[in-house]
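[Automated response] Your request has been received and processed.

Submitted sequence:
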Amino acid sequence: MTINADAAYLALKARDRRFDGRLFVGVTSTRIYCRPVCRVRTPKRDNCRFYGSAAQAEAAGFRPCLKCRPEIAPADRSLAWSVMDASRTLAHQAAAWLEQYAALGEQARMDRLAAVLGITDRHLRRIFAAEHGVTPLQYLQTRRLLLAKQLLTDTRLPVTQVALAAGFGSVRRFNAAFAERYRLQPGELRRQLPERDTGDGPAVNLQLAYREPYEGRALLGFLAQRAIPGVEVVQFDGPHAGIRRSLRIEHEGGEQRGWLQASFVPGRPVLRIALAPELAHHSAALLRGVRRWLDLDAEPEAIDAVLAALPAPGTRLPGAIDSFELAVRAVLGQQVSVAAARTFATRLVQAYGEPVATPWDDVNRLFPTPAVLARADAAGLGELGIVRQRAGAIVALATQWPSLSVLIARGSAPEALMAALQALPGIGPWTAHYIAMRALAWPDAFLPKDVALLKAMEQVLGVRGQRAADLLARQWSPWRSYAVLRLWAALTPSAEKA
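Generated structure:
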């Protein structure tokens, strides 16, 4: 990434939020790097060095600012779905894999990453450095240290737990890395911080930033219409406006059950996350999952510029915190209304889900696991009102989920995931597109033969028929998923699907 330093300095002086997460400034007089939205006094131009990532700034010897906190900045996804050559695509897939596995200690080895991408270690290092300006290990170390800094800042977790949760194999290794990079010990960092409200009770409380505008109420409305009683609850008003739900984390050592709450901070572009203490070790994966789930990394100005003819600027793309749950619910939503799909999902959870303890009486069950639904039979699912074809699709989906989940975890091309899904009985193009759109946070899906979408295009834009709709939608690429959501929102909720 080539940065025009003069333009970057103007963005810094204006505290331009469009560049948050895409630009970092290192100040040579303090050896500290900041986000462009930092509220401290603007440094002199001659003292500023500009970088495209936190990893580059840290590799140049700068420490993260304690005020603007680079660790909570929205990620730069400007190139994530653009057309790039094969090497650049692999480099971005590698970065996504490293972010996902940052907290998994020795499991995030470079040889394993190279094998996942189908290239050699040497080629991985070469293309990664060319695209990101740092080595994969430098990038990984930065992600781990920033996660550790976030846990030290936002939580009361002991340093030992912070070290393990951030992916360091031992406290000694963590202390050494922290001291080398930030030139102070973890305990010293905590003593330098102002007093913070880390929340009530034992929950792990964290923060994430996003770019404005953000139509949070519209996103919550979308999720509320689909919320399964007992699994998730949406709250529109008050200090905890957001969503709370049960959660199950699958990992190589087994599974961990718990809960999560995401609340919008009034008057600030910040999301507050509360996790069950049992999920602390999975903080990195969950924070990344929440970013995808609530679309915190979107660049609304770029999207709104392309979709200027459509209503509801600032609309976000709801992803999925549990991709298997999303996939099953997509099957249940085939050719029925949102309300009917929610009813079927509720029955499925009551019949096959398990109880879980949470701080709330209205969140008390877990969505069924793939293993449980793989053992279900058509007769049992039929008793819930699920027709035979959809029952067979759910069982097939659950049976093949181990291989499908790998495609999602890797951030594979949507076409690969959709092809694998459509190879299963009972899953057609609409369902495959919908799952890819939300499970991969794919911004350029345009659902084929969606009745509600075609109706909205006729009402809002005067366009009639699939062929005409497809032709018009080409000009919305690569943001067609956002166009779908805006057009759905133009109709009554009962007309939507899934």
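Summary generated for your ticket: Residues 136-154 form the longest helix (19 residues). The longest strand covers residues 254-264.
If you did not submit this request, please reply to this message.
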